[in-house]
Amino acid sequence: MPKKRSIFLGLHADPSPGLRLLLAILPFVLLLSVYVVASEIRHKANPHDKLLPTISKISKAFQKTALEKNKRSGTILLWSDTKASLKRLFIGISAASVVGLVLGLNMGLLPGARNLGLSFVTFISNIPPLAILPILFITFGVDQLGKIMLIFLGTFPLITRDIYLAVRKIPRENIVKALTLGASQAGVIYRVVYPQVIPRLVDTVRLSLGAAWLFLIASEAIASQDGLGYRIFLVRRYLSMDVIIIYVAWITGLAFCFDLALRKCVAFRYPWYNPKADN
Amino acid sequence: MTDSEKGKNNYLLYLEDVSKSYGSKTVLNDIDLAVRQGEFCTVVGPSGCGKSTLLRLILGQEQPTGGQMLMQGKPIGFPGPDRGIVYQRYSLFPHLSILDNILLGKQLSRSILRSIRNRKNDREEALRYLESIQLAEHAHKYPHQLSGGMRQRVAIAQALIMKPTILMMDEPFGALDPGTREMMQILILELWEEYNMTIFFVTHDLEEAVFVGTRILVLSQFYTHEEDYVSGTGKGARIVADHPLHGEKALSTKVKTTAEFGQLIQEIRSQGFDPEYLQNAREFNLKHPDSFITFTEIP
Ligand SMILES: Nc1ncnc2c1ncn2[C@@H]1O[C@H](COP(=O)(O)OP(=O)(O)OP(=O)(O)O)[C@@H](O)[C@H]1O
Ligand SMILES: [Mg+2]
Q: Which H or E element spans position B195?
């Protein structure tokens, strides 16, 4: 008789699809209930507690920031902040991807470019980006460019080095093979190497997004007129935990969706890239 | 032009005094070799003796430390479409479907405009090759979806579609099971006959080498002076034996069981593969009419 597999415990566990979904939801439900209970307890002791606002307070704040126009600015705050922040994030990370791809490809393939660039990029990547934020603000202004530059400088060295490693990992045989098929040097780059590292680029950008968000929020917190990070640090002065919680949840949700979208994009467009992966 | 230079130009591939060292380590030492159009040369030798290195030199992937390498009378340059290659692995492009892998050579060697104009013809030609390797129904799969044997068949078709002057193969069937391996040996012999190719085939399997080749080259360590004999290896490898094999290829695996077949394998094994047995360079078994040896002074 075959041994029965446990549904949850152990190396050979085989949870049913329903149970899998339940398991995935469970930590969220737990977190939420702990919060609700804790906030309830605190409000019993002090009805004006600001630290853990009740769900109804949070939904009121949501109404105010996400659905109604702000009286002073005439816009819906959550939307205008999101728009401003995503614009910076998008420009910064796009520039970093393009520069990282071009540098990484060149350094990976051309010995000349490798000698020229590798130690320099490695050096740059060791500068703590936040430490040079004042320099960036002084040089590029506290407006858009300074923030975009922080995101760019904070992410492009890592993308460059990762693309470089991906190019170096392509077996020499593969490149010689392309040459024996009549490829020119440009042919090797554009038909053989470039398409093989594109999915890796998407993956690297996906993992760099976490750092990009960090730099975005840090720079907005320090000097800005709008943006998600700006708002969080602004309302902190009034101890508006309800607004902060809404913004944090919204940022987390956005980041999660970007991650998911990029992951799906790789799985769908480049099925050869990760043939075994199921997540 | 002197007579000897004209002679060199008659060969498809001509190597003289070719040596290759990595740092202070000599791998190949004075290789002399002349190959004619249509020959199926197999190269055997103990592991690490430099078979792949020799192939990389002919391919142009690496440059020799010394010596002369000619192909159809011209010095060998960087890898190009006149020399096709099938490696044991990494011959295929993982991001392209099987059909596109075979088509790639056609597209790379043309300008974009001409490859668009010739699209239909090229596709048909690629499909014909796919049929000849019996993989037509897998045209739209990716390499990782095929078995090892299928992948090697694709790699062969991919190289063949460029009609290279010489096709080089480095242990192409090394990772295949015996049954698939035998099928592939017959396939490559059929293709060799059909396209009148010249093949340079590295293998570590003696039986395979004797079965498919028309000429077998044994690469191994050697000695020239008695005192080297004591110090043993480290001088690099040379072609220590060069036999013609039965010229007309019987496409039957039955020959593998005959006595002569076994005897030849035994002979080669003792000459080239026994680490105890070093040959004097003057006693090499160079039976092939084109084989020659130059005695440049070896320090
Ligand atoms: N790039 C390199 N740098 C230094 N040594 C090398 C290099 N490539 C090969 N060698 C050395 O050259 C020798 C021959 O290697 P090669 O790969 O040509 O052997 P082989 O005959 O193909 O062996 P096998 O049958 O195991 O494939 C080995 O001893 C190897 O260590
Ligand atoms: Mg080898």
A: helix B178-195
Task: Note down the domain range covering B138.
Answer: 92-163
State the pairing for strand pair B66-71/B166-170.
Answer: unpaired
Flag whether B138 is in a domain: yes
| Claim to verify: residue A10 and residue A133 sit in the same structural domain | no
Per the structure, how many domains does chain B have? 1
Calculate how close chain B gets to A155, using CA atoms only, in Å.
27
| pTM, entire model | 0.86
| DSSP codes joined into one string, A65-125 | IIISPPTTTSS-HHHHHHHHHHHHHHHHHHHHHHHHHHHHHHHHH-HHHHHHHHHHHHHHH
Give nearest CA residue, ligand 1 atom 7: B22
B91 contacts A181? CB cut-off 8 A: no
CA A126 and chain centroid, separation: 20
Provide the token pair at B93: 């492009």
Cite the beta strand spans of B5-45 per DSSP E. 13-22, 25-35, 40-44
Verify whether the Cβ–Cβ distance A177 to B91 is below 8 Å. Answer: yes
ipTM surpassing 0.95: no
User: What is the tens place of the pLDDT at every residue in B103-151?
Assistant: 999 988 877 788 788 888 889 999 988 988 888 899 999 999 999 889 9
Tell me whether A275 touches chain B (CB under 8 Å): yes
What's the domain range around A148?
66-269
